[in-house]
Amino acid sequence: MISNILRKHFNQPLVGLTILAAIAAAGATPVKAQLPTFSPPPPKEIDNTPIILPPPPLIQPPAATGVRTVPINSPTIATAQCNRNNRPLTEAYTLGSGDQVRLDLFDVPEYSGQYQVLVDGTLNLPVIGSLSVAGLTPSTASELISGRYARYVRRPLVTLSLIKARPLKIAVGGEVNRPGAYSISLTDGQQFPTITDAIKIAGGITRAADVRSVQIRRVDNRRGCTADLWNLLQNSNLGEDISLRDGDEILIPTTIGIDPLESRQLSTASFAPSTVEPIKVAIVGEVVRPGPYSVSAATASATNADRTSGGSNSREPATITQAIQVAGGITQLADIRRVQVQRTTREGTRQVIEVNLWNLLQEGDLSQDVILQEGDTITVPTAVAISAPEATELASASFSAAIISVNVVGEVKKPGVVQIPANSPLNQALLVAGGFDPRRAKKNVVELIRLNPNGTVEKREVEVDFTAAVNDQTNPPLRPNDVIVVNRSGLTSFTDTLNNVVSPIGGLFTLFRFFGL
Asked: Where the protein is mainly located, per its record (predicted)?
């Protein structure tokens, strides 16, 4: 294109010489990038942060460069961030209002010292002034501070250490004994609290707690994570006992179905209630004294005559059999195979626990001796029929009534009310009353009078056989307030009748004799 232009204009000598001169001048002149410059570099952006101290002269520290973070006194904790499997991850501790830190600027002692993060989450540092560090890790805050000091110190070497962590504000809700918000202050050398520490501060778990699905919510992670404390108990998995941070929310959900055996194991866990106070429960049905009671293991031990006195361990929780003991024990009509415990959870729902105390007596199944909690209602239903051998076995149970009263009247040596063990047979009551009057009693048959719960009165004759075992025909088990009537023998009845007839005539002869007739 240039050759065409030259060919066109070279035909005009003056114009051609002008164009050649212009091209030569352009080729001899360097471009802008090639021009040498002696002007100083443009100044850096000026920080508007007010300077407290005048800037010192430039200091040349040793050749080391960059930011150094020393892990000493800068603890990290496991936090409840979630991965794809909804499991907690680990992240560094983040600074917040109330934290005390130490800033070390290498070879510049006048800028070093201890500082506290203010209520607005800032640090007020020499020269650079106020700097927001809330939500930053010590390492990240070190980098930020180093960048600020780079305007005044050549290649600054900054170390930021956590001296004392701020009090942690956490919330614990759900199936714990004292739900609410708690502030935990950390002393020197103390590690950050964990989930189990928080549960203990909240009074321990209740009997309806689902420890397999403990929920943790964090301010920067509202979706939440779960921890399986049962895995901690069974497999010693410390990873489930997550360390906490400020603002964490812990929720202990309610279990769908209560496993009595698991509940007994949880009662010995480190995050169970450390001390067991008496609890208020209601006991209805076939017990001697139904009604509301304040129950603890110690009160049950003192009530039960079969146990030694002296109280019990303060950590031992009250169980269903101990509550029945406090209520005087079961009656002879109790159906111990269908006992129920009704429980109200923190959510307001009502759970029913089926208990078979017969398995406890026959197989030693301690899981049937359910651990109680505040507000439980125990219902002991009425049995349709109880065999004599079963009644005898129930009489020796620790949760049966210790003593019952029956009335033995008629021809016995010591008639009146007698005290006998619960479910004792008829023969035993006769023996406690001194036995038959050998001259007057009808020894082969007695009458048994019983007041039934429905208000009716049952009366029947029982053939007496002192050699017989407990049975419904000849040696039935007794119930409270039964009446045993021992009648007179036939000869005694005839003699007494004859005396009633003869006595007036004898009195008449005596009167005649008195007047000398």
From this structure: membrane
